Amino acid sequence: MAGDVRRLRRMLLECNSSDKLCVVREYQTEVIIIPVFLVGVFAILLGVILWLRYRSWRSKQQQLPRRQAVAPLPAKDKNQKEHSESENTYIQLSETTVESLLRSADLTLKELEIPRDRLIPGSLELIHNGSFGGIYRADLETGNPGKTKTVILKALQDTAGPSEVKDFLGRIKFHQSLGHHDNMVELIGCCVVQLPLYMILEDVSHGDLLNFLWTCRRDVMTMDGIPYDLTERQVYKVGQQVAAALEFLQQKKLIHGDVAARNVLIQSDFTAKLCGLGVAYETHTYGTSCVTQIVPLKWQAPERLLMKPPSIKADIWSFGILLYEMITLGAPPFPEVPPSDILQHLQRWKVMKRPSTCQPAMYGIMKSCWRWNAMDRPPPAELIKRLQTATKSSNDQVVLQVPELVVPELYADVAGVDLGSLSRDYTVL
Question: In this protein, which residues make up the domain named Protein kinase (predicted)?
Answer without folding.
Answer: 121-391
